[in-house]
Amino acid sequence: MTDMATDIDWLPPGLEQVALRLARADQLTFDMTRLCFEWSKGTDSLGPLDLEQVWVSHDDLSVVVRGIRAIPPLVSMLFSEAVNHLRAAIDNSVFYLVTDSRTSPLTEWQERRIAMPIQTDEEKFGSWVAENRRRGLTELADGTLIDRISSLQPFTDTTAIASMSEQLAVLQGVKPDHVHPLLLLQGYSNADKHRAVRPGLTRTTYQMRRCRSGPATGRCGRSR
């Protein structure tokens, strides 16, 4: 045994799993970022695009996109796992707070009910709270915990984060969406359940198609 404190000694007993989930999500994000960088750099350091210079006329040189290196499938898997760990960490925390303050056993229905709701509609949130109260899950119906949960809901909290950086938005010619953090996490989690998480791939494909559906020359840019 050692007297040296660990990095999670400050956590109440029972929340170690949450710390592990957050650490895992952080590692997955790092791995995904590194993989994306290697993909964008390319094995030959020429980037992910297969470009060809084409003379359109004697003084007009265009660059044509002939192909694009496939995005590694592992990118989507890393993203998926990180999102699931983040969502689970929030639910794990709520479950801990409920059970830590409860003096009677939970029923099977009550255990399944415990989660972090994410609601944009205050009335629907109120109905969820009322059902908890009716079924004896008082920790998620009255008191400090439900007040804290309510204060974080999108219908109360106006916090919003951008879907991409301003610099990237300028480069891609789009306007970033600003979304509540919980709604963004919920959207990613729901999309992943339907096997629809494709970070970066959709936008990249769209850029290439837009380029190739332009003028008859298929030019994406020109130099003289």
Q: So what's the overall shape?
A: elongated
Low-confidence stretches: 197-224
> Kindly, what is the distance between the CA atoms of the first and last residues, rounded to a whole number of angstroms?
72 Å
Largest sheet, if any? 3 strands, antiparallel
Structural class comes to mainly alpha
Strand content: 5-15%
Quaternary structure type: single chain
How much is the average pLDDT?
82
Q: Helical element count?
A: 8
Radius of gyration (Å): 24 Å
Structure summary, number of beta strands: 5
Strand order in space, largest sheet? 1-2-5
Proportion of residues in helical segments:
40-55%
Give the H and E element order: HEEHHHHEHEHHE
Description:
The protein is mainly alpha-helical. The protein has a domain at 12-40 and 48-101 and 180-224. It is 51% helix and 11% strand. It has eight helices and five strands; from the N terminus they run αββααααβαβααβ. It has a three-stranded antiparallel β-sheet with strand order 1-2-5, covered by helices on one side. The termini are far apart.
List keywords for this structure.
mainly alpha; three-stranded antiparallel β-sheet; 224 residues; single chain; elongated; 5 strands; two-stranded antiparallel sheet
List the helices and strands and how they pair.
Elements: H1 16-41, E1 49-57, E2 60-68, H2 73-101, H3 108-113, H4 122-134, H5 144-151, E3 161-162, H6 166-172, E4 178-179, H7 181-193, H8 201-212, E5 222-223
Helix pairs in contact: 1-2, 2-7
Could you provide a short overview of the structure?
By secondary structure, the protein is mainly α.
